[in-house]
Write a structure and sequence with these properties.
This protein is α+β, with helices and mostly antiparallel strands. It has four helices and ten strands. A hairpin with a 5-residue loop joins strand 5 and strand 6.
Length: about 190
C-alpha cells in the first residue's frame, strides 16, 4: 500500500488529479490500514466489495517506464460455489499535455466451468466493475473481453502476487521478509516462477 503523504513529483501530481476526480464521484481512499484489514475476506465476512463501499487503495507508484500511480479495487465472494476474486488496477499517469490518463487491468479467478474464461486471467478494462462506477480516462476502443491473458495463479493469494509482479517485476518479492514472507513463500513456490 502506498503512503500518499510521502508522494512527490509526478506521483504527487497524479494523486492530486485522481483525488479531484474522485471527490466528484464520492469515492474515497482507505485512510488507515486498520480499516482496510477489517475488510479482508474471512469466515464472518466472505464477501468484499471496495467500490460498493466507495473505497479504493493506492499502491506504490511505478517509476520505471514512466511515472504511474496504481489504484486497486477488490471484489470477492467466497460464498459462491466457485470462489470469486476480482482485483482491478487502474494505472494512472499524466500525459504530455498535463491531462490525467489511465489504463485498467482486471485480474480474475476462473469464470464458470463452461465459460471461455474458466482460468485465472487478466484483461483490460475501461470502467471499474464494468458498470461505469468509475470510468477511466482512456481510449474507448480498448478491448475489454479479449484478449484474456492466462496467469500463473491457483487461488486468491497467487492472484494478488500476479498483480504485484505485473506492476513491479520479480525483484518486488524482495520486499517480502520476516513473518510476511513466511505467509506467502509457499504460494510463491507453487507459482514456479523459474
Amino acid at each position: 500500500m502506498s503512503n500518499v503523504r510521502n508522494l512527490s513529483g509526478k506521483a504527487e501530481r497524479i494523486h492530486a488529479l485522481i483525488e479531484e476526480g474522485l471527490r466528484v464521484r464520492g469515492v474515497l481512499r482507505f485512510e488507515h490500514i486498520t480499516r482496510l484489514e477489517k475488510l479482508f475476506p474471512s469466515s464472518e465476512n466472505p464477501q468484499v466489495d471496495f467500490l460498493g463501499l466507495k473505497r479504493f487503495l493506492y499502491l506504490e507508484p511505478i517509476v520505471e517506464g514512466g511515472h504511474m500511480l496504481p489504484v486497486l479495487s477488490l471484489r470477492c465472494n467466497f460464498k459462491s460455489a466457485s470462489p470469486e476474486v476480482r482485483l482491478e488496477v487502474g494505472l494512472f499517469l499524466v500525459d504530455g499535455a498535463g491531462e490525467l490518463r489511465a489504463i485498467g487491468y482486471r485480474f480474475e479467478t476462473p469464470e464458470g466451468e463452461a465459460g471461455k474464461h474458466h482460468y485465472h486471467h487478466a484483461q483490460l478494462f475501461r470502467n471499474f466493475q464494468k458498470q461505469a462506477a468509475w470510468c477511466l480516462p482512456c481510449p474507448p476502443w480498448l478491448p475489454t473481453e479479449q484478449p484474456s491473458f492466462v496467469l500463473s495463479a491457483t487461488d486468491g493469494v497467487t492472484l494478488l502476487i500476479n498483480v504485484l509482479l505485473s506492476m513491479y517485476g520479480r525483484t518486488y518479492l524482495g520486499k517480502f521478509s520476516g513473518p510476511l514472507w513466511s505467509l506467502v513463500k509457499d504460494y510463491v513456490d507453487k507459482m514456479r516462477l523459474g
